[in-house]
Design brief:
The complex is a heterodimer of chains A (about 500) and B (about 850). Chain A has about 500 residues and is an alpha+beta fold. Chain A contains 16 helices and 20 strands. A five-stranded mixed β-sheet of chain A has the order 2-1-5-3-4. A five-stranded antiparallel β-sheet of chain A has the order 10-11-16-12-13. In chain A, strands 6-7-9-8 form a four-stranded mixed β-sheet, covered by helices on one side. The termini of chain A are far apart. Chain B has an eight-stranded mixed β-sheet, sandwiched between helices.
């Protein structure tokens, strides 16, 4: 058992003890280390000003990607190497080519968001991405700028020749870090401290298990433990003081949950698989899901957040849920009694209420790949198209036979306390021909099956109207596809 | 007639910003002679221009990209520094019955808690009307209003301690909307009226008339660096405040007043801001006073840095507006008269609302000549944070309203809206008098519109849009061209002044300080360019120094787009004084009895870092050598420059005069695609064209144009402030408040400038850029309106601003379904101007 976290920052080794491990990376950088080039604006992973590179060991090599340092707590970063904007500087060298490009293209105005943009672009180089207007926009979706209108930042990115730019990570003695990490990563980490500011002297503990067994045991012992993988929602809740856990378990060093496989047309996804990895894996079979992933989350979020986290968080507007509901996904729960599989449609019992027992963990998710001729459509309506929490979501899975709808599965999010399947509408559509009037009527039915609320994102009226209209939209898109097929 | 071809092209204009040719044929003839002379003179002078006109990178660009450019909260902490936070009102309107913070003050890490009673000076302030309190006394007037200040050893300590506050408030009835304020007769300042001609007569006699209501919501500035201040106690009670402020002089003065000090005992410095956009013109005051009060009371450095959530919840925004309009027009579409009853939602205190309403009145006709008009402007007092400056300063709302009216006229008359706009546009010789009596001179508004219509292929695309809308069952397209005319100068005359300090050092390098503040707009870069050219030295030999009230006193805020105009002129004025001293010395130095050359200042030239007498051009001194010799000869090489804008005047008694030094103008064409099922809006193409005079730095100006436009696009589309029915802002962070991101750029985006040879005034014949491009966004909003006009052919849709997906779908549904599904809305113009939902209250 280790009582410290091991983190490298710009090549410098840090052992972090006690309460210092229980803070966001951005606070650690800015307050403890005085690395103020990393800026914090929102503290919720929505603006990217705090973007840094995180290098982690995968297959005995370091892999670097951009993340939002404000919503990564240090206990998520054990055995990781952090590169900040300060880390791009080499003694006596000119500034990094990405930095020079932004200077030359007039890509900074007030400069507050700029280090974040620099790091996001450096991250793109690190993963050897081709820089096109499209890829640059995707790579920078998670970075907000209020001054420039972005055009000059895109100009800067497109002026770069990635082939001749040395990778930022290459400056550091990665070999020594790898050795150090290999030596430490197999030790579970346990840290505790007394929260002394709140007058009551509460014990706070965090634990980094290395095996599922350790994890289940810790969960059994501390029933109210908060489990963190990507932390893209939990850390926000903590930053905003909506959540102040006494026990946290970070899955960072837990191996065996990275599974990604297809066997007999069943896809299985491990609980630690990030959105980025899931997206790559689903390119062939689920382009609709890939599209949703690319819209709802920025790079930084996709590199940290997980599908399992989305399920565990149990929000009625979680972006993966309509998909999982219509695909009839099953969730693997592991506890001291072993594992069991639960269909997602029976997983939620009410708002944020799951059928999991207190000692269970989500360990994987699986679903069957539909027949190639089945139609799967996913919809997400939000105020801003990219990187926004949904106002309304929908998943539709249609099986057609001889021009008739053999079966239709419908799941709506954002219209009730949990994601809803619409049994009456599904039943109504079953066996009917694909006709505009049918979908119009189905829309009216769908409206009756839901129970939306008005909130910061939208009114009841808007959500109801969307619930009705989305079926017509689906109908038109199916017709369009049909026409295109016929034309081809 | 002589035709001039291309004039000075910016030699390093890049990307899509290019100088455009304008032919003199298009211009009024009698001015040509004068104009030609001016050009020839100008071109002679041009040869001296070295840095001005070039795309020099932003003054702090390297610091920005490396993270080495420091903002207030990046400054290193002193050992005994205190962190400052505040206790905010949880209710929109209430009477404080008790505040018990003794428990909290005793907690570990908490050093002091202060209330209004601890303020040694006075607790009342306000930039125009003194009606605002630093800390609430017995009444709270908005959710988020600071009540008490906590000073602690760490953020963690304060965070825990805040949970121990016991605050008892008796809730009073709040007023949120304009309509509620009108009913309750709660207003700020006095109503203002602009009049021209005889509206009543025009209305009576007109065959064609329209009435309606325009509604726009507010907008959060969303500067990335939230409000912040750091105060250091000095000797003899002095205080130095680092403030993220557009207005260091105001910070100096209000801190002094709050602490009971003389202005000479307070220094305010501002290195840079992480964005301001107007949000730090007045509202940096409260955090600065918080930090200063703690520093003064504890004699320890004190730092306050708002979280984005607190910042958004407790500071003011762009004003929501509601405007009832009446318009009379001919069957050709020529407007004969309008009457606008304009109401703004000012929030709980006056702040800058009166000046903002004034600017609305100055821009309610936008680029159009209206012979008969009445504009009534009234500010409503409500229980929101005091609304404040935001890029455009009331102009955008006034301009959105008239553009809305014109679009309605076009829909009503079944005419192309561009024709109607062109028909009403200000002309050169006649139809050029504004509602406030100023003549719109030296403008090229019709030329801008015509050129843009041509380059954007407006007519061809309009045919395409109409065809598309006939065919598509799933989508709608809309296309609109809107012009923009924005008056440059503070409309409060005394603010139109600036001063600068220029120091030349013995190695020939120069430091410049002005009262202007840098918030990303490139002010310092432009001044550095101007100063380098004045001495004909290299740009690198000039440095811009931190803005400080110690060096530049009694300065106006950096606002009204006039930062470069006022401070640039002042800096040049200082340079000229020094150059005059140096020239006098150089003339004696170069005088030669042998050659029969008496000393003559007129012959001294500064070129390419050297100085010579043009009668003996082979004999030169480098600027550095000259400076060294001049020092030995005891020549003064420091100077303060001063500038006040000439020829501006406005008489508020009769509401007539010439408030503006000149106008910055432009136009934009935007095309949108709307999903009929979801209301989702996609901006497909925008073409922008602006007259910004001769750019001092084309790269910076291009950034201002694009950045301003996109910021405006946020205002008219997705930026949606939503409140609970208790007046709590619910969209208080970027998770719920969506400013445009990089995916929201138009797919095709053309940005251009046009040359205007009439414009012969202002510093280096440049024009202010900052605010004006924001209003080009109206092309996007009007394009939505245009698209919706196809739903029920010829029926003009009510469209509130912003046109969110929800707003668009609501209007689409109303138009298609007789509004059955939106049963609650029978009169769409009665839509509330503040978007509020019923929710359990959130803790602040």
């Amino acid at each position: 058992m280790r009582d410290f976290l091991l983190i490298y920052v710009n090549g410098q080794r840090h052992q972090i003890y006690g309460e210092h491990g229980f803070q966001s990376l951005s606070d650690f950088l800015r307050i403890d280390l005085g690395l103020v080039g990393t800026k914090v604006v929102c503290a919720e992973g929505d603006c990217g000003s705090c973007t840094v590179l995180i290098g982690r060991v995968r297959n005995c090599e370091m892999h670097y990607e951009g993340i939002d340092s404000c919503i990564q707590y240090l206990y998520q970063l054990d055995c990781a190497h952090v590169i900040t904007v300060e880390g791009l500087k080499e003694e006596g060298q000119k500034i990094h080519p990405v930095q020079q490009a932004i200077v030359d293209a007039m890509g900074s105005q007030c400069g507050y968001c700029t280090p974040g943009f620099v790091m996001s672009l450096v991250a793109m180089l690190e993963t050897n991405e081709t820089l096109t207007r499209h890829s640059v926009q995707d790579g920078l979706t998670g970075n907000l700028c209020r001054c420039t209108g972005y055009e000059q930042i895109i100009d800067a990115a497109l002026s770069l020749n990635p082939d001749v730019i040395p990778r930022a990570s290459k400056r550091f003695d990665v070999k020594a870090m790898l050795e150090d990490f290999t030596e430490h990563v197999s030790q579970p980490v346990f840290c505790e401290y007394e929260e002394k500011w709140n007058g009551t002297g509460q014990q706070v503990q965090f634990f980094l298990p290395t095996s599922l067994k350790e994890a289940v045991e810790f969960k059994q012992k501390h029933k109210n433990v908060i489990i963190v993988a990507g932390g893209t929602d939990i850390s926000v809740q903590m930053n905003k003081e909506r959540l102040e856990p006494n026990y946290v378990m970070s899955l960072t060093n837990l191996t065996g949950l990275e599974l990604l496989e297809i066997e007999n047309r069943t896809m299985t996804i491990g609980a630690k698989v990030t959105w980025a990895k899931l997206g790559e894996f689903c390119q062939k079979h689920f382009p609709e899901l890939v599209e949703i992933i690319s819209i709802f989350a920025s790079r930084q979020i996709r590199n940290a957040g997980t599908l399992a986290g989305n399920i565990a968080n149990a929000s009625p507007i979680a972006d993966s849920l309509p998909f999982l509901h219509v695909i009839e996904a099953e969730i693997e729960l592991t506890g001291s009694q072993g594992t069991r599989w639960v269909n997602i449609n029976r997983f939620y019992q009410g708002y944020k209420n799951k059928v999991m027992t207190q000692e269970e963990l989500i360990t994987s998710i699986r679903w069957n790949i539909p027949d190639p001729e089945d139609v799967l459509k996913l919809y997400k309506v939000s105020k801003r198209k990219d990187l926004d929490i949904s106002t309304f979501t929908a998943g539709i899975l249609l099986k057609l036979k001889n021009g008739k709808m053999q079966s239709v599965r419908l799941a709506y999010g954002g219209v009730g306390p949990i994601v809803l399947r619409l049994p009456k509408t599904e039943e109504f559509l079953q066996g009917k021909p694909m006709m505009s009037a049918i979908f119009q009527e189905a829309g009216k039915l769908a409206r009756e099956e839901i129970n939306p609320i008005s909130d910061v994102r939208a009114s009841v009226d808007y959500r109801s109207q969307l619930a009705e209209n989305i079926l017509m939209k689906f109908f038109h898109e199916c017709c369009d596809n049909q026409n295109k097929k016929e034309a081809a | 007639m002589k035709v001039h071809g291309k004039r000075t092209q910016h030699d390093s204009a890049v990307g899509r910003v290019t100088g455009r040719t304008l032919f003199v044929d298009d211009l009024p003839s009698e001015k040509n002679e004068l104009f030609v002379d001016n050009i020839e003179q100008a071109e002679q002078k041009e040869s001296r221009k070295k840095v001005v006109g070039k795309q020099v990178p932003h003054d702090s660009a390297v610091g920005h990209v490396t993270g080495e450019a420091l903002f207030v909260d990046d400054l290193p902490s002193a050992k005994n520094e205190l962190i400052v936070d505040y206790i905010a009102s949880p209710v929109a309107h209430g009477k404080i019955k008790s505040l018990n913070y003794e428990e909290m003050a005793k907690l570990d890490g908490i050093v002091e808690v202060f209330t209004h009673a601890d303020i040694p000076g006075h607790n009342l302030y306000g930039p125009v009307i003194k009606d605002e309190r630093f800390l609430a006394e017995d009444i709270v007037e908005y959710v988020g209003q600071p009540i008490a200040i906590i000073a602690g050893e760490s953020r963690r300590a304060i965070r825990q301690a805040k949970k121990h506050t016991l605050l008892e408030i008796q809730e009073l009835t709040p007023v949120f909307t304009i309509d509620e304020a009108i009913t309750a007769k709660q207003f700020i300042g006095v109503p203002r009226t602009f009049k021209q001609g005889n509206f009543d007569k025009a209305w009576r006699e007109s065959k064609h008339k329209l009435t309606g209501t325009f509604v726009s919501n507010g907008q959060e500035q969303f500067y990335l660096e939230s409000q912040a201040a750091l105060a250091w106690p000095g000797e003899y009670g002095e205080i130095q405040v680092h403030s993220s402020s557009q207005n260091p002089t105001e910070i100096q003065e209000v801190v002094a007043e709050a602490l009971g000090l003389g202005f000479h005992e307070v220094v305010c410095v501002c290195k840079r801001m992480g964005g301001g956009f107007g949000g730090k013109e007045t509202q940096a005051v409260i955090p600065a006073v918080m930090a200063a009060l703690v520093a003064a009371k504890t004699q320890r450095p004190a730092r306050v840095a708002y979280s984005k959530d607190d910042d958004m919840r407790s500071t003011g925004k762009r004003h929501p507006y509601k405007i009832h309009y009446k318009a009379a027009f001919t069957s050709e579409g020529k407007i004969t008269g309008v009457k606008f009853d304009i109401y703004s939602n000012g929030g709980a205190a006056a702040d800058l609302s009166t000046a903002i309403m004034e600017r609305t009145l100055f821009h309610s006709e936008n680029a159009y000549f209206i012979p008969n008009l009445v504009f009534n402007g009234t500010i409503c007092k409500t229980n929101f944070p005091p609304n404040t400056a935001f890029r455009g300063f009331g102009g955008p709302q006034g301009m959105a309203n008239i553009e809305n009216v014109i679009q309605e006229i076009a829909i009503y008359l079944k005419k192309d809206a561009l024709e109607v706009r062109r028909l009403n546009c200000y002309s050169h010789h006649e139809r050029n008098v504004t509602p406030y009596g100023q003549i719109v001179q030296n403008h090229i508004l019709p030329e801008i519109i015509d050129q843009l219509a041509k380059t954007s292929e407006y007519r061809k695309r309009m045919t395409g849009v109409e065809e598309f809308n006939r065919q598509s069952t799933t989508h709608l397209r809309g296309l609109a061209l809107t012009p923009m005319k924005f008056g440059i100068s503070f409309t409060t005359k005394f603010l139109n002044q600036g001063n600068a300090l220029v120091n030349v050092y013995k190695d020939g390098t120069v430091q410049v300080s002005t009262g202007g503040t840098e918030m990303g707009q490139g002010l310092n870069t432009k001044i550095r360019q101007l100063v380098a050219d004045e001495f004909a030295i290299s740009y690198d030999d000039v440095r811009m120094m931190i803005t400080s009230t110690e060096k530049n006193n009694n300065t106006p805020p950096t606002a009204a787009s006039a930062g470069t105009d006022l401070n640039g002129f002042a800096a040049v004025n200082a340079c000229q004084k020094i150059r005059s001293n140096l020239s006098a010395f150089a003339s004696r130095y170069f005088a030669s009895e042998e050659l029969g050359l008496d000393h003559s200042v007129e012959h001294i030239c500064f070129e390419e870092s050297s100085v010579f007498d043009d009668r003996t051009p082979d004999k030169t001194l480098s600027f550095r050598e000259l400076v060294q010799l001049a020092f030995m000869d005891r020549v003064s090489m420091g100077a303060r420059g001063f500038y006040r804008t000439p020829e501006i005047n406005f008489n508020r008694d009769i509401e007539k005069g010439e408030p503006f030094f000149y106008y910055t103008t432009g136009a934009a064409v935007s095309e949108v695609l709307i999903d009929r099922f979801t209301g989702y809006l996609k901006l497909e193409r925008s073409d922008l064209l602006m007259d910004i005079g001769e750019s001092i730095n084309p790269g910076i100006d291009r950034g201002q144009i694009i950045g301003g436009f996109i910021q405006g696009v946020g205002w008219v589309t997705n930026e949606d402030l939503r409140y609970s029915d208790k007046g709590e802002l619910l969209s208080y962070s970027p998770t719920t408040y969506k400013i445009p991101n990089i995916q929201d750029l138009p797919e095709i985006f053309n940005v251009d400038t046009i040359s205007n040879p009439h414009h012969q005034i202002n510093i280096r014949r440049s024009k202010a850029v900052a605010e004006p491009p924001l209003m080009l966004c109206l092309s996007v909003w009007i394009a939505v309106k245009h698209a919706l006009s196809f739903v029920q052919n010829g029926v003009s849709p009510q469209l509130n601003l912003p046109a969110t997906g929800e707003e668009i779908l609501r209007r689409l549904t109303e138009l298609t379904n007789d509004s059955k599904n939106y049963g609650t809305v029978d009169d769409s113009t009665k839509e509330p101007e503040v978007s509020m939902v019923s929710l359990p209250p959130l803790a602040i």
